[in-house]
Design brief:
Elements (H helix, E strand, L loop, with lengths): L1 H14 L6 H34 L1 H23 L11 H10 L4 H42 L2 H12 L3 H30 L5 E2 L2 H27 L7 H29 L2 H13 L7 H33 L3 H13 L1 H12 L3 H30 L9 H17 L4 E2 L1 H19 L14 H7 L1
Antiparallel strand pairs: 1-2
Helix pairs in contact: 4-5, 5-11, 5-12, 6-7, 6-11, 6-14, 7-12, 7-13, 7-14, 7-15, 7-16, 8-9, 8-14, 8-15, 9-14, 13-14, 15-16
C-alpha cells in the first residue's frame, strides 16, 4: 500500500512539475527491478515450454491418434452408411470368401453383382466430393471419366479375357438402361409426383446429347451395313475392322469436343443444372485426401468384383438357364447404373428435370461416345479383334431406342405418360433378349475375323 501511494505521489509530482526525492527514486528503481524480474520469469517459462512439451509428447501423440481415428470413423459413416444401398455392402466380403473357398461359380457371380451396386453409387459420391475442391473444370472432367467407372472396368476385364460378346452386350445394355429405364422411371415418377403442374426442361442440352447419340449410332451401323453390303464370297472382316478403328477415333474426337463444349465455350447451357445442385449441397462432407483415398480403395474393390463377374458369367448363365445376352444387357447395367438411377429419380421428384436428363443422357452419351470407342482402341493396341459391329438385333434395338427418346424429348415438356412409354420399351427389349439364345460357337461376336464372315 505504501509503494502504491508513493508511486501515485511521484506520478502526481511529475505531472505537476514537482521533484522526486531519493526515497521515491529508490522505490521506482525497485519497481523497475521487479518488472525486469517478472519479464525474465516469463521468458524462462516460455523457453521451458518446449522442454515441458517434450515430456508430454506421448500425450500429444495419443491425441493425434485419437483425432485421426475420430476422423476415420466420421468418414466411414459418411461413405459406407451414407447410402440406402449400404445393406448390400456385406455382399463384397462374401463374394471374396466364396471365390477363395471355391464355392459355386453362380454364387460368386450373384454376390459380386450385388456388391457392385453400392460400390458404383459410392464412387459417384466420392467423385462429387472431390469436385468441390478441384473446381468446376477438373471436377467436370472427373465426373465425365469416373461416372461410368464400373462399366469401364467390366469392359476392360472382358476385353482382357477376350470375351468380346460380354463387352459389347454390357456396353449396349448400359446405353439402353440409361435411355429407357433410368430416364423412363424418372419421367414416370416425376410426372406422378408433380401431376398437377407441367414439368419443363431445357431442350438445348437434350438436343446436344441426342446429336452425339445419333453420331455414335451411325458409327456403329456402318460396319453392320458394310458387312451386309459385301459381295458374296468376299471377306470383309479386315475392312470392317479398319472402318471400326477409324470410326472409333472420330467418336473419341467428338467426345473431346463435347467436353470442351460443356465445360468451356457453352457452359451457360449447363449452369442452371449446377445452380440447382448447389442449392441442395453447398460444401463437401469429407476432406479431399479422404475422398481420394476412399475412391482409390473402392475402385480397386470394383476391379476385383468385376473380374469375378466376367469370369463366372457363363457358369451363372448355364446354372440359371438365362442367356448371357440377357445377363449382360439387362442385369449388369442395372447394377452399374444404380447411382444414376437413384439420383435421377430423386431430382425428378423435386421437379428438376434438367438434372435428371443430364444424368441419364450424359451417362448414355459417355458410354456410346467414349467407353465403346476406347475399348476398340485398347483392343487395337493389345492385338485383340474388336469392331463396332454389334449385330443386327442389338444395333436395331439401339437405333429405335435413340429415335424414341429423341421424339420424346423434342417439345421441352414432360408428363408421366412419356415415362410409361419408355419403361415399356425397356421391358419389351428385355423380353426379347431373355428368349434370345446364342450358341456357344458364335457367342464371341467379333472376337475373330472368321465370325464376321459366318454371320454374313
Amino acid at each position: 500500500m505504501m509503494i502504491s501511494s508513493m508511486d501515485s505521489q511521484g506520478v502526481w509530482e511529475l505531472e505537476n512539475g514537482g521533484r522526486i526525492d531519493s526515497s521515491s527514486k529508490e522505490i521506482i528503481r525497485n519497481n523497475n527491478n521487479n518488472d525486469n524480474s517478472n519479464e525474465a520469469a516469463k521468458t524462462t517459462q516460455i523457453v521451458s515450454t518446449p522442454i515441458m512439451r517434450k515430456k508430454s509428447d506421448p500425450l500429444l501423440v495419443s491425441n493425434v491418434r485419437f483425432r485421426i481415428l475420430r476422423e476415420f470413423l466420421a468418414n466411414l459413416r459418411e461413405v459406407i452408411l451414407g447410402t440406402r444401398l449400404a445393406l448390400l455392402f456385406p455382399a463384397v466380403p462374401l463374394a471374396v470368401i466364396a471365390r477363395l473357398n471355391n464355392f459355386g461359380r453362380p454364387w460368386v457371380f450373384a454376390l459380386s453383382l450385388l456388391g457392385l451396386a453400392p460400390l458404383a453409387e459410392r464412387v459417384s459420391f466420392l467423385t462429387e466430393q472431390i469436385a468441390y475442391f478441384t473446381g468446376p473444370t477438373v471436377g467436370g472432367l472427373m465426373n465425365a471419366t469416373c461416372g461410368n467407372a464400373t462399366e469401364l472396368i467390366i469392359a476392360l476385364f472382358a476385353l482382357y479375357e477376350n470375351k468380346i460378346h460380354v463387352l459389347k452386350y454390357s456396353l449396349l445394355g448400359s446405353v439402353l438402361s440409361n435411355l429407357l429405364l433410368v430416364l423412363g422411371t424418372s419421367l414416370l415418377c416425376g410426372g406422378l409426383a408433380n401431376i398437377r403442374e407441367e414439368q419443363r426442361y431445357d431442350r438445348k442440352q437434350a438436343d446436344v446429347n441426342s446429336l452425339l447419340l445419333l453420331l455414335g449410332l451411325l458409327c456403329q451401323m456402318l460396319p453392320l451395313l458394310f458387312r451386309y453390303a459385301a459381295e458374296p464370297g468376299t471377306f470383309p472382316a479386315d475392312s470392317i475392322l479398319q472402318l471400326s478403328r477409324a470410326s472409333s477415333i472420330l467418336m473419341l474426337l467428338a467426345y473431346v469436343a463435347y467436353i470442351f463444349f460443356q465445360l468451356k465455350t457453352h457452359r451457360k447451357l449447363f449452369e442452371s443444372q449446377e445452380e440447382d445442385e448447389d442449392e441442395d449441397e453447398e460444401k463437401a462432407v469429407i476432406g479431399f485426401w479422404s475422398a481420394f483415398s476412399w475412391l482409390v480403395g473402392m475402385t480397386a474393390i470394383i476391379a476385383v468384383l468385376s473380374e469375378y463377374v466376367v469370369g463366372t458369367i457363363e457358369a451363372a448363365s448355364d446354372s440359371w438357364g438365362i442367356s448371357v445376352s440377357f445377363i449382360s444387357i439387362i442385369l449388369l447395367p442395372i447394377v452399374g447404373n444404380a447411382a444414376e438411377h437413384a439420383g435421377s429419380i430423386i431430382f425428378a421428384f423435386k421437379n428438376k428435370l434438367d438434372i435428371s436428363l443430364g444424368v441419364a443422357l450424359g451417362s448414355a452419351t459417355q458410354i456410346s461416345m467414349f467407353v465403346v470407342p476406347l475399348c476398340v482402341v485398347i483392343a487395337w493396341i493389345i492385338g485383340v479383334y474388336m469392331d463396332l459391329d454389334f449385330s443386327l438385333l442389338e444395333t436395331g434395338s439401339l437405333a429405335f431406342t435413340i429415335i424414341i427418346v429423341a421424339f420424346t424429348l423434342q417439345d421441352g415438356t414432360s408428363h408421366y405418360m412419356k415415362g410409361v412409354v419408355l419403361f415399356l420399351c425397356y421391358i419389351a427389349i428385355a423380353a426379347c433378349f431373355f428368349v434370345h439364345k446364342i450358341p456357344q460357337s458364335t457367342a464371341n461376336m467379333g472376337a475373330k475375323p472368321s465370325l464376321g464372315v459366318s454371320a454374313a
